[in-house]
């Protein structure tokens, strides 16, 4: 006697050349941002100037609908800063209302969360990734150009809305925010939030991975192990990304912290479970963050091409690994690719 699978078989055309199931689409809705993070937006960047409009809300939802037909179930809306887009709530509602959508997340710097947390929760967002690179206001401003008080108000508003998951993200910057790591861990633990530390990638104005700004996750893990207890959490996965989670305890914590590490440049076999494509705000599909090669979905969409065909092409073109360790020089900064 055979039993039926819990879910239908994954469509074969959503399996990439290396056997990975591609079911996660990160959708950038704008390359504009109201902060100027060192690791994301180059000095004086105005890539949007003089360019046709980005994907419309209707086009974004149409692409997401085509993606669900291919087996995509997980969506994350990013920027730039997605909450500066005036029609962000209808975009989120449109994606969440699609029959195939199982997970809808949003990545934000938090600066507009105070006024929008309730609306985006009602629109279907279930998880939030919030960038928080420092708790010291001056350090935060040096890294982002922003006001920490506004971000804290946004986080408070998000916490009041009972999102299923709120994750904090901190980019590791040697010499810039090293003194902030333990305070951030204590803050995250006190609020019961997972905190992810992310290696600097060569997608910014402060140089590639081997510059003085780079700090590998292994070094931070060694530091934490020297002052506390760091234990792998093999089954803990509060999202769909590549973070590897640990529980951290030390004498200063009333409860253990859950810490994720994203080491794109130093973690062995980092890409072997990659399950995502990226859609840029100007309608390009990017099979890999760390490789050149984009497919123009917007041009095809506006000339009548089925988005599913372009999505399938991107899956078929997905490489096995990134090229960050091969003197990779990005053609576009992170804010233009999508976080």
Give your account of this protein's structure:
By secondary structure, the protein is an alpha/beta fold. It has a single domain, classed as TIM Barrel (Alpha-Beta Barrel). It contains ten helices and twelve strands. A twelve-stranded mixed β-sheet has the order 7-8-9-6-5-4-3-2-1-10-11-12. Helix 1 packs parallel to helix 2, helix 2 packs parallel to helix 3 and helix 3 runs parallel beside helix 5. The protein is globular.
CATH architecture: Alpha-Beta Barrel
Low-pLDDT segments, ≥5 res:
1-8
Assembly of the depicted chains: single chain
Question: What structural class do you assign from the helix and strand content?
Answer: alpha/beta
What is the name of the CATH superfamily? Aldolase class I
**Domain tally:** 1
Report the major sheet: 12 strands, mixed
Order of helices and strands: EHEHEHEHHEHEHEEEEEEHHH
User: Which value, in Å, is the CA radius of gyration?
Assistant: 19 Å
Percent range of helical residues: 25-40%
Q: Would you state the CATH class?
A: Alpha Beta
CATH topology, by name, is: TIM Barrel
